[in-house]
Amino acid sequence: MSKIHKGDQVIVNTGKDKGKRGTVLRLLDSGHVVVEGINVAKKHAKPNPMKGVTGGIVTKEMPMDISNVALFNPATQKADRVALKMLDDGRKIRVYKSNGESVDA
C-alpha cells in the first residue's frame, strides 16, 4: 500500500515549487507523481488533425519524485508524514504521524 494516493492533497518539500500545495493527479510506476499546478513546463506540441489537437506551446504538469512531496494534514495545516496501521479486522489504514488521526476519513 502506497502512502500517497491519487486525489490526496500534498505539499512540495523541495524544488522550484517548494511550499506549494496541490492535488495528486496520477501516480506513476517509477515512484513519481503528477501534481495539479506543480512542476509545470512548456512543451511544443505538433498539430494532429485526426484527434483535433491544435499545435503550439502548451503548459503541462511534469512528473516529480514522490519523495519531494508530503501529505497535507488539515488539522495542523502543515505537511505530515504517514504511517500504515493495521486494524483489528485486518485492514490497513493510513494515519498521520503527528496526531495519529486517520487519513482516509
How do the helices and strands line up, and which of them pair or pack?
Elements: E1 9-12, E2 21-27, E3 32-35, E4 40-45, E5 56-61, E6 64-65, E7 69-73, E8 78-80, E9 82-86, E10 92-96
Antiparallel strand pairs: 1-2, 1-7, 2-3, 3-6, 4-5, 7-8, 9-10
- Return the string of H and E elements: EEEEEEEEEE
Q: Which structural class is indicated by helix and strand composition?
A: mainly beta
Q: How many DSSP-defined strands?
A: 10
Give the uncertain stretches in residue-range form.
none
Task: Please describe what this structure looks like.
- By secondary structure, this protein is mostly beta strands.
- It contains no helices and ten strands.
- The protein has a domain of 67 residues: SH3 type barrels.
- The strands form three sheets. Strands 6-3-2-1-7-8 form a six-stranded antiparallel beta sheet, with no helix packed on it. Strands 4-5 form a two-stranded antiparallel sheet. It has a two-stranded antiparallel sheet with strand order 9-10.
- The chain is elongated, with a radius of gyration of 17 Å.
